[in-house]
């Protein structure tokens, strides 16, 4: 490494590539060479870069960690309210599960971005309104509109966290794509934390059982509950405090899974033709079909958001384009199945909600597919693909608000 540094000292681009290829070895080799190179301007720059202490970042991270620990303790305590006050667990968690996570994530980004009092009031007021609304809805047996309101309300709460994330410029397309990248990073980090937590749980229960203590129930009721409440907050803290680690993993996962999902989806569509099942007459199959659609769409959007931060190869853009085309076909099948069921049996709250969602997804995917085609033709840069994605986020939130707040009234709470 020392010889490579000496040869490329006057070549900033090559030196940067060496640094990124093996940061630890580069740092060690450069520090050893610096005494004989310190009169060189380029060496002085790299010395300052490698030795900059960043004290404010360290202190900020420490304060953020303290906030995360306190917030996690509060979230875990709130999760135990049904036990503490004998509240029906199904009633409590169905309506309030999102309020154990999203308000604390929003508070984290409110602190981090130093939002104005007006913005804080908007976020806090909207969450309070949502909390009161969902808990005063009448509890009818088998109420589809109640379940829809509970589900789509999570999307609205997620959107409020996004508003806190983007900060003072809520219309910034780059910040909105940054929020999608954060969600992808959080999924990756959350999976790692849950895997580590599961391993710790197995080891702890096993060790105590060896000495005659059966702690499974206690551990599940308290340690696991608090751990699950803390996972999104701790994952968020790690994605923000050590982004250089997470940002190296997420693009690799996006690039690895995109071609795998493309192949799987094509094989799945072919298999449907021979399976004897179809989404037109099988309600459960249609629900699964739509779940696959949403998952693949999320992967496309996440891959595009990650790709705007790094240079995707032409083959990778081609994979995303083909995946978008196949997903449009899947959406078309799902949409036609929903329209068939509506024409045959009429509108229900579920059919209306899914129909509206699928129409929005189809339009959004068509715009993204068109932009990816333009990227392949070298007519626009990849960053242009992010524009229809970021532009549609408020539209999705608007539809979620309609379903959550208006559907119960429009369909008589049925």
UniProtKB/TrEMBL annotation:
Signal sequence extent: none
Keywords on record: Membrane, Transmembrane, Transmembrane helix
Keyword Membrane assigned: yes
Membrane-spanning ranges: 65-85, 91-110, 122-140, 146-166, 186-213, 219-240, 252-274, 286-305, 317-340, 352-373, 393-413
Coiled-coil portions: none
UniProt keyword Transmembrane, yes or no: yes
Protein name from the UniProt record: Membrane protein YdbS with pleckstrin-like domain
Organism: Rhabdobacter roseus
């Amino acid at each position: 490494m020392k010889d490579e540094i000496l040869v490329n000292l006057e070549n900033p681009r090559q030196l940067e590539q060496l640094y990124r290829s093996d940061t630890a070895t580069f740092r060690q080799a450069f520090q050893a060479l610096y005494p004989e190179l310190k009169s060189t301007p380029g060496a002085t720059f790299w010395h300052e870069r490698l030795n900059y202490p960043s004290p404010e970042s360290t202190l900020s991270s420490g304060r953020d960690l303290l906030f995360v620990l306190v917030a996690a303790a509060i979230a875990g305590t709130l999760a135990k309210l049904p036990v503490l006050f004998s509240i029906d667990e199904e009633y409590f968690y169905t309506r309030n599960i999102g309020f154990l996570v999203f308000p604390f994530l929003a508070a984290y980004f409110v602190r981090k971005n130093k939002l104005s009092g007006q913005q804080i009031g908007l976020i806090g007021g909207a969450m309070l309104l949502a909390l009161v609304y969902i808990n005063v809805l009448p509890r009818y047996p088998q109420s589809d509109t109640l379940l829809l309101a509970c589900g789509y309300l999570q999307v609205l709460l997620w959107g409020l966290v996004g508003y806190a994330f983007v900060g003072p410029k809520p219309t910034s397309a780059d910040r909105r794509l940054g929020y999608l990248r954060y969600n992808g990073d959080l999924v990756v980090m959350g999976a790692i934390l849950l895997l580590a937590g599961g391993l710790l749980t197995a080891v702890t229960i096993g060790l105590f059982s060896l000495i005659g203590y059966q702690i499974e129930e206690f551990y599940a009721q308290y340690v696991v509950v608090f751990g699950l409440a803390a996972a999104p907050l701790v994952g968020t803290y790690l994605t923000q405090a050590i982004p250089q680690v997470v940002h190296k993993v997420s693009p690799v996962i996006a690039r690895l899974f995109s071609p795998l999902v493309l192949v799987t989806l094509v094989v799945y569509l072919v298999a449907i033709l021979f399976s004897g099942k179809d989404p037109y007459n099988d309600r459960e199959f249609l629900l699964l079909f739509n779940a696959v659609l949403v998952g693949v769409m999320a992967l496309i959007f996440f891959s595009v958001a990650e790709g705007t931060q790094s240079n995707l190869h032409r083959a990778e853009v081609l994979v995303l384009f083909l995946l978008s085309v196949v997903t449009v076909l899947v959406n078309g099948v799902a949409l036609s199945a929903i329209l068939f069921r509506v024409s045959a049996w009429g509108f229900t709250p579920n059919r209306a909600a899914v129909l509206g969602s699928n129409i929005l997804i189809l339009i959004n995917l068509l715009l993204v597919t068109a932009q990816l085609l333009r990227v392949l033709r070298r007519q626009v840069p990849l960053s242009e693909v992010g524009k229809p994605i970021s532009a549609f986020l408020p539209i999705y939130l608007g539809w979620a608000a309609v379903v959550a707040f208006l559907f119960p009234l429009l369909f008589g709470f049925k």
